[in-house]
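testing teh design pipeline on a random one, pls ignore if ur not involved
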């Protein structure tokens, strides 16, 4: 049963309940009115009967009470009062013995009057269902109204009883019930007809809405409405209009998703790495074009396969991917054998595996997230890394050695100038050229030192690489620097968060590089201060920070800090930080700094973590 039929039946049921409720209430009101009318007549007869009894007794004052009430004229008067179907009998009784002294029915004389419930209490206090039960014939067949009569207020001589049969009231109510039933049936039929018409008109937009949803679920859409179409005003029509607009937008979104899927497919096809994107059900939705290089399978053959089909759990690669899929933990560049143990290796033997969880992916309706798997050739990565490092080193050497020409040019200019002075003196016949020769000799020695320093700086260095715990290496550097720091009233603080992190370095060279930075920091605090060592690690990089609380580095000098021969101290050689820069470069690392005048400087050395 569709929604329209359910709503129609609901409307009809509501109409039936409403009409029935009104009819029942009207019937109860009519019943109450009939009971009240009967009570009013009974009270009228009760008063009239009392007057007849009083008249009879007053006319026969010398006659005994029972004999006086046995007067046939009184019985005729009481009988004449019975003009309604509900009043069954009028009796005059002895209040003590309850003997019937006079009655509208002469056959009841001499009998005892039976006690009946009070009719007035039933009419005024009884619930409607009790009255209905009385009309239908209950255990209580008769009710009464009783009025005491006496010669004094404190003495009752006789009681006047009006006996009422409520079941007889039904005769008067039946015509009313039949009339109400006819009206109720007519109203009910009319209500049903109106309800069907109203339902057909009111629920019509629901049918349209259902058709629109059916079209959308099949991937079909209604044509767009012309611009001059009058907008709907009722709620259901407005909803149907909005569903139609939603369908149009969904159609545009599907076109965009289709185009995006095509663009991603073309992009992945050109990647050197193998990239696999799985949806929430862990089925493959995208794969890059280099899949065949890593798995030996065509990309088209893997579409919609599960992650266990693409990467069998029997292999180390498949086991790691299955674990990451279950736990949701990412994997970063882990070296993993590509083939299963014992299998022949025909292509790549080892790959770098990375797994990431994606929160939003197309396909699938279950809770969870998609998964991105990347396979990378480590040799290709190393080759690319070496090329980038070579370019970085060449650029760094260019920056570091940019001051060499200036250091060579200065002594050469001085030598040339004093050679010209000595020549002029000799031309004039002045043979005292000793001062010029002394200066020329000093500049030649200076030039020799510059050249030797440059040769030492550029001499190839053979690294003695070992794997060292970073925490241990930083601790050794701190212990080397602590005596000099304490002598200079400098407080040394150490903060390390690198437990278990190892780096592959030339231990002695890296110590030299870091100590050059440390010495510069201590020299920047001649009046004491704080020297802080910090060590951190990310997934791929370890970082050593050395911070001082000196005067900081002026803005105009920051670009020259790592240049060879640059120094701000008269006794400095200008080679310390340049050598540090070169050593860090040789370890495939980076070094930079931040400085705030008046607050100090922080140098950061970043090194790759040992794999």
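output:
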């Amino acid at each position: 049963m569709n929604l329209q039929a359910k709503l129609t039946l609901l409307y009809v049921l509501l109409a039936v309940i409403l009409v029935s409720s009104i009819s029942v209430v009207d019937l109860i009101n009519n019943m109450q009115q009939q009971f009240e009318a009967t009570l009013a007549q009974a009270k009228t007869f009760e008063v009239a009967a009392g007057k007849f009894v009083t008249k009879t007794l007053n006319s026969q004052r010398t006659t005994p009470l029972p004999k006086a009430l046995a007067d046939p004229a009184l019985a005729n008067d009481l009988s004449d009062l019975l003009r309604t179907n509900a009043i069954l009998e009028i009796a005059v009784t002895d209040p003590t013995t309850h003997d019937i002294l006079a009655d509208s029915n002469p056959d009841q004389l001499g009998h005892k009057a039976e006690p009946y419930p009070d009719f007035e209490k039933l009419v005024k206090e009884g619930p409607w269902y009790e009255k209905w039960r009385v009309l239908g014939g209950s255990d209580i067949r008769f009710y009464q109204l009783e009025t005491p009569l006496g010669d004094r207020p404190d003495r009752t001589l006789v009681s006047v009883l009006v006996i009422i049969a409520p079941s007889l009231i039904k005769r008067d109510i039946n015509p009313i019930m039949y009339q109400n039933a006819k009206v109720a049936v007519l109203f009910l039929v009319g209500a049903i007809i109106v309800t069907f018409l109203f339902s057909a008109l009111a629920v019509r937009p629901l049918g349209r809405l259902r058709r629109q949803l059916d079209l959308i679920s099949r991937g079909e859409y209604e044509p767009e409405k012309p611009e001059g179409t009058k907008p709907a005003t009722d709620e259901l029509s407005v909803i149907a209009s909005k569903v139609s607009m939603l369908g149009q937008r969904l159609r545009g979104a599907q076109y965009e998703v289709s185009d995006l899927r095509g663009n991603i497919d073309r992009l992945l096809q050109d990647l050197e790495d193998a990239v696999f994107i799985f949806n929430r059900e862990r089925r493959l939705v995208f794969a890059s074009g280099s899949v065949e290089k890593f798995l030996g399978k065509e990309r088209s053959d893997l579409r919609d396969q599960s992650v266990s089909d693409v990467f069998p759990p029997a292999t180390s690669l498949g086991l790691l991917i299955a674990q990451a899929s279950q736990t949701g933990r990412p994997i970063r560049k882990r070296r993993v054998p590509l083939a299963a143990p014992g299998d022949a290796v025909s292509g790549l033997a080892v790959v770098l595996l990375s797994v990431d969880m994606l929160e939003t992916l197309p396909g699938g309706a279950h809770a969870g997230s998609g998964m991105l798997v990347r396979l990378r050739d480590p040799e290709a990565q190393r080759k690319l890394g070496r090329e980038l490092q070579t370019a970085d080193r060449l650029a760094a050497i260019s920056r570091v050695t940019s001051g060499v020409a200036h250091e060579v040019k200065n002594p050469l200019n001085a030598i040339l100038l004093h050679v010209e002075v000595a020549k002029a003196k000799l031309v004039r016949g002045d043979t005292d050229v000793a001062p010029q020769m002394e200066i020329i000799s000093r500049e030649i020695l200076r030039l020799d030192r510059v050249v030797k320093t440059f040769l030492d700086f550029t001499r190839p260095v053979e690294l003695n690489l070992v794997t060292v715990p970073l925490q241990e290496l930083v601790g050794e550097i701190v212990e080397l620097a602590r005596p000099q720091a304490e002598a200079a009233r400098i407080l040394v603080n150490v903060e390390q968060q690198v437990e278990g992190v190892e780096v592959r370095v030339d231990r002695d060279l890296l110590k030299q590089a870091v100590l050059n930075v440390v010495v510069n920091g201590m020299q920047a605090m001649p009046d004491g201060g704080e020297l802080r060592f910090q060590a951190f690690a990310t997934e791929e990089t370890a970082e050593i920070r050395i911070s001082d609380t000196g005067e900081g580095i002026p803005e105009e000098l920051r670009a020259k800090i790592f240049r060879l021969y640059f120094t701000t101290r008269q006794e400095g050689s200008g080679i310390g930080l340049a050598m540090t820069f070169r050593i860090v470069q040789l370890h495939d690392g980076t070094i930079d700094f931040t400085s705030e005048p008046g607050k100090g400087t922080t140098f950061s050395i970043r090194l790759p973590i040992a794999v």
